Amino acid sequence: MPLRDIDDVERLKKINAALVSRVERSMDQQGNAFSLFQTAISLENRVRMRTEELHATLRHLEQSNIDLSAAKENAEQANLSKTRFLAAASHDVLQPLNAAHLSVSALAEVQTSEEGRKLVLQVERSLQTMEDLLRTLLDISRLDAGVVQPEIVDVSLETLFSSLRSDFQPVAEIKGLGLRFRPVNIAVRSDRTLLRRILQNILSNALRYTRSGGVLVGTRQRGEIIRIDVADTGCGIPEEQREAVFEEFSRGKVPPGAELAGGGLGLGLAIVRRMAGALGHPVTFSSRVGRGTIFHVDVPLAINANVEPPPAPAEAERAPGYGLFGTRVLLIENDADVLNAMTLLLERWRCEVRAATSTGEALETLGDTDWVPDIVIADQHLDNGDLGILTVAEARNYLGRDVPALIVTADPSQAVIAAARAAGIELMRKPLKPAQLRALLAHLLA
């Protein structure tokens, strides 16, 4: 029915209201659609912005990783460069230090007055302190750089304890302390040199911080582990200092009278921690102030634990003295000061010395067939890039026999040690201790 034919007002109002409602709903739907459209555009823009921010962050992280990797590589190179520098610097410093040791030893033999002997002893102590500091700094540098590669072998604890007893008994006697090593017929798996340094540093500290009583070294077996205990009756370590004792240059209060054991540099336990870490040997301790301290070093048991390995070559330095009178020594050394000091010392021991600075000079010296050396002593790094081990080999080949030989070097590398061992040549580190040198020469000649 057309609207003009409807004369019912109320009915017209209802129709109008329905139409208005329909129009309003249509407009609301269009408005909602438009709103959703705007929201979608807004969300799209926000997603795009967040994606761009995420990409930028990822690029930044990637660049940061590249920078960190480069910084790490630079740090590692700097650390290795530092190690090489310290090794080279230590070698150069140890050369004149070695000459000083030898000269002071020769000087000590001509002293007749008590005052002169005391002055010589004071100089020797100062030189020893300098040597200890240089070696310790080099050790820390090499350990931090990770260039120390332990040589794990079966180590006889009885042999090791005997060596330590020989070194520390005089120190204990000077201080009036007891020093006891419990007998042990057992072997462990470790690096002989590093394990000795660990125990040496712990023992040195124990004697330094003990005024009365003494130090006891013993072992306990715990399954496949041997625990080495170093117990002292010293001043003890306070609770608040127990973490700091393994830090560099950390020193406890030295009790009166302890100066006789040496001043100490505060580096001993820092070296212990690094060496023990390289070997995988846990080091712990317990302590009571005023009662003493016990350090524990846990070392794996050797496979053939009760089989005594042969004594280390270094043990030969304690062989009873044989005379060196008339011994012919071919000395090959390119440092003039060391050469002069070593010649003077050997001549004081009544040796007949002929010197050379390179392989060529050494072979020229051997050209005199009326003079055949009883022993060859050579530095490892000689003039013209010559190496002492190769020079000894050429000298032996020229002489047609394996004349006893000794390499004396400040080079700490394992490669030199392995090469000397393979060639059947003894090796000593600079700076030399004259008494040990004389004993080893006597042993080789015997």
From TrEMBL:
Keyword Transmembrane: no
Catalytically driven reaction(s): ATP + protein L-histidine = ADP + protein N-phospho-L-histidine
Superkingdom of origin organism: Bacteria
Sample GO molecular function, one term: kinase activity
A Pfam family per the record: HisKA
Listed EC numbers: 2.7.13.3
Histidine kinase domain: residues covered: 88-303
Record-annotated Response regulatory domain positions: 328-445
PTM annotation (4-aspartylphosphate): residues: 379
Keywords: Kinase, Phosphoprotein, Transferase
Transferase is among the record's keywords: yes
UniProt-listed InterPro entries: CheY-like_superfamily, HATPase_C_sf, HATPase_dom, His_kinase_dom, HisK_dim/P_dom, HisK_dim/P_sf, Sig_transdc_His_kin-like_C, Sig_transdc_resp-reg_receiver
EC top class, as a word: transferase
PANTHER family xrefs: HISTIDINE KINASE (PTHR43047:SF9), TWO-COMPONENT HISTIDINE PROTEIN KINASE (PTHR43047)
NCBIfam families: near_NosP_CTERM
Protein name: histidine kinase
Record lineage: Bacteria, Pseudomonadati, Pseudomonadota, Alphaproteobacteria, Hyphomicrobiales
